[in-house]
Specification:
The chain is mainly β. It is 8% helix and 37% strand.
């Protein structure tokens, strides 16, 4: 009985469909396509990567400063990076791709200079400004002004005698 089990196992190994030559040993190739290496980023930026393999790509992992921050499983492989979280300074991005056989490839290490901050509307790299009346917008034509008493948004005006009245 033991001999019969060993024979069956041996036959399964010998006649298995997959040989050593058929095993996938090729790692995916990965390229960061946007933004370009050494770019200065001032607002939320979509990092894009191409990953290709001779069989398939199971997932693509985006790493910022060596920390895995996002995994994408469908092409196009993208990560929307809120650079304002990190503010200013130099940071790195690396992208890794894995195929279904477990082979892993990675991109070159890209370096970016961040010079970003949130505006008054909490938009990374936005152009809204807070005026003297605490109105947050990008329209400078509606900024409040100072009345003749020096009060922003006040209603005092100069009368015919050039006296500041009201307000």
């Amino acid at each position: 009985m033991v001999m019969r089990k060993l024979l069956i196992i041996a036959l399964l190994v010998i006649f298995s469909c997959e040989t050593e030559e058929d095993k996938d040993t090729s790692a995916p190739s990965v390229l960061i396509t946007y933004p370009g290496n050494q770019a200065t980023l001032t607002e939320t930026t979509t990092v894009r990567a191409d990953a290709t393999d001779d069989t398939d790509v199971s997932n693509v992992i985006f790493l910022i400063d060596g920390v895995e921050i996002f995994t994408d499983t469908e092409s196009p492989y993208e990560y929307e990076w809120d650079v304002c979280v990190l503010g200013t300074g130099t940071h790195t991005v690396l992208v890794k791709a894995t195929d279904s056989a477990g082979n892993q490839g990675q991109s070159e290490l890209y370096t970016f200079t961040l010079d970003a901050s949130y505006d008054c509307a909490s938009v990374c790299g936005g152009d809204n400004l807070l005026d003297n009346c605490d109105v947050c917008d990008a329209d400078t034509t509606n900024d409040c002004t100072q009345d003749c008493n020096g009060e922003f948004g006040g209603s005092a005006t100069l009368d015919n005698c050039n006296d500041c009245v009201g307000g």
